[in-house]
Design a protein that fits this description.
Blueprint lengths: L24 E10 L3 H12 L4 E4 L14 H8 L13 E3 L21 H9 L8 H14 L2 E3 L7 H13 L3 E3 L1 E3 L25 H7 L3 E3 L2 E9 L2 E10 L6 E14 L2 H11 L11 E3 L3 E8 L14 E3 L11 E4 L4 H6 L6 H9 L4 E7 L6 E6 L6 E5 L4 H20 L4 E4 L5 E3 L2 H9 L13 E3 L29 E3 L14 H17 L8
Parallel strand pairs: 1-2, 1-10, 2-7, 3-20, 10-21
Antiparallel strand pairs: 4-6, 5-13, 8-9, 9-10, 11-16, 12-15, 12-18, 12-20, 13-14, 14-15, 16-17, 18-19
Helix pairs in contact: 1-6, 1-12, 4-12, 5-10, 10-11
């Protein structure tokens, strides 16, 4: 494969501003990929590098890293889905997702961890996907880790906020590990969630998308795909609109004819695309089995400043409870910017808000991630144009109980580290001033009406809504990545995951996308006709 030379900065992207208004666009390619996040970028590069003509369509805008401001308010407006306010139907869980060229990889915390072996083994045995067994998928993990510069944090990359958590873990005798991250020579500015202006985060913008473009792939931003085109049970392309991101005016209609369609819009938007396209759903599984892997933020206030916004955002994680016996609970250091905490109703109002901001430099944060059982459902309501998405998800009583246990564990860590006070993530502003009152205060948090608005929750890792598996009665996608009901239609994102990955899924999605690309290329006679 001969790669072409790219500009010294940025990647070639066709945007709404490049299109003459009213011009209908018709394109032809071997492969069209919907979405430019991890799943879409990896598979686009692998197929382009193999000599296939590839077109990538991204609904979000293209913002080159030279324009990143490290201002979280700006990032929410320009880089996030729904300005960072995408929620479940009742509005008590914020579902964060990138909406830009590069997808969520652009605004990630750079956490790059493999799924635990017990998860991979369950996917291979319980779901019949032999290619995801640890001894088979590991080679894909290794390839991605090398390409994305994944490494274990060194001591200088772990800030005082994270060191406070480490002190607490060691005092309690609980196991912890430095975080593994996809970053090269990190500048340690601490604003990962707003995009990396120095290009040191190995996001898709500066890795797989750039490589895909060098291999000949064409990338379109501001392009909203409305539906997948099908003929005689086979995907034959997509149709949609190019929309000006500044005034939301439709600039042009677009149609791409292709031999293979890859849906890679994420666990929320891929099932919506398939539903809008009337993909057959005989087993009623499309959009179901959604895991949000809900996260809450516990804050510890220390007597001396810890400056949580300095240094690497993701410093360490507590792995004491990551096992099946430990409840598959993940806890990580990382203090979000005030504007993001405000979106979660964390910062209070008036005088309390001023006091909170004055004390902000004294706060360390533990993000508690508790597994959910995949009982969510995302679906499209109404017509293709004018309809709306619905994310149906509520925390179960069992999950609520696990969350309360997570709050107690986080509180114990902070008090063991010397915290003066622990702020709990409830809509009623609750705080504990000692470990002795912690359990009683946490137990007072009421599940209430189906758990609604008891705790402030955010989802960083939506997954599982187009489940992969060998049993077509229970899965949407077969073990090779192809949708059961439509040949030539593949899925390559976190919606594929058969169950919760437990760890952050970015690295697993990338490895899985490599695996699917290999399946397409080795079984190409069934997928390509020219």
């Amino acid at each position: 494969m001969i790669y072409k030379e790219l500009p010294s900065e940025g990647i070639p992207v066709t945007q709404a501003s490049d299109i003459r208004s009213g011009e209908d666009i018709v394109l032809n390619a071997d492969v069209v990929v919907v979405g430019s996040g991890v799943g879409g970028a990896v598979i686009a590069h692998e197929l382009a590098a193999a000599g296939k003509s590839v077109i990538i369509l991204e609904a979000g805008r293209y913002v080159p890293s030279s324009e990143f401001t490290e201002d979280m308010a700006w990032a929410l407006e320009n880089l996030y889905q729904d300005v960072g306010t995408q929620t479940n139907t009742v509005g008590d869980t914020v579902v964060l997702q990138g909406r830009c060229v590069g997808g969520s990889s652009v605004v990630s915390a750079t956490i790059a961890a493999r799924a635990p072996n017990y998860v991979l083994e369950s996917w291979a045995t319980e779901h019949g996907i032999e290619g995801l067994a640890p001894n088979k998928i590991n080679r894909y993990y290794e390839k991605v880790e090398k390409r994305l510069h994944v490494h274990i944090n060194e001591p200088h990359e772990i800030n005082d906020c994270a060191n406070a958590v480490i002190r607490g873990c060691e005092a309690l005798g609980w196991s912890w590990r430095p975080q593994s991250r996809n970053v090269k020579q990190c500048a340690l500015t601490g604003h990962c969630l707003a995009g990396c202006p120095s290009d040191r985060k190995a996001s898709m913008q500066v890795t797989y998308l750039a490589w895909a473009a060098a291999a000949g792939a064409k990338l379109y931003a501001d392009t909203y795909v409305e539906s997948i085109l099908m003929k005689n049970g086979r995907a034959v392309g997509v149709s949609g609109q190019i929309i000006d991101p500044n005034n939301h005016a439709v600039v042009a209609n677009i149609k791409v004819n292709a031999q293979i369609v890859v849906a890679a819009a994420g666990a929320i938007h891929t099932p919506l695309l398939l539903q809008r396209s009337k993909v057959p759903n005989k087993n009623d599984q499309l959009g179901r089995n959604l895991c949000l892997h809900p996260t809450s933020v516990v804050l510890g206030k220390f007597p001396v400043p810890v400056y949580g916004w300095r240094g690497a955002f993701a410093g360490m994680h507590v792995d004491e409870f990551l096992t099946e016996r430990g409840g598959k609970m993940l806890m990580e250091s990382g203090l979000a910017a005030p504007v993001q905490l405000m979106a979660q109703n964390e910062l209070s109002l008036g005088v309390d808000h001023i006091r909170f901001m004055q004390e902000f430099k004294y706060f360390s944060a533990l993000n508690v991630l508790v597994p959910d059982t995949g009982h969510g459902f995302v679906h499209w309501s109404g017509p293709i144009r004018g309809g709306a998405k619905r994310i149906e998800w509520n925390m179960s009583k069992e999950e609520f109980g696990m969350y309360k246990e997570g709050l107690k564990r986080a509180g114990r860590i902070f008090f063991a580290a010397g915290a003066e006070r622990v702020y709990l993530p409830t809509y009623q502003r609750i705080q504990a001033t000692s470990v002795h009152e912690l359990d009683d205060i946490v137990e007072s948090i009421d599940y209430g009406a189906l758990g609604l608005f008891s705790m402030r929750l955010v989802s960083l890792n939506a997954q599982g809504s187009c489940r992969m598996g060998a049993d077509r009665k229970k899965a949407v996608v077969d073990p090779y990545g192809q949708v059961y009901e439509v040949s030539g239609l593949f899925v390559s994102d976190a919606s594929l995951l058969p169950s919760l990955a437990v760890q952050h899924p970015m690295l697993t999605v990338a490895a899985l996308s490599h695996y699917i690309a290999d399946q397409i290329l080795t079984r190409h006679q069934g997928y390509f006709w020219s």
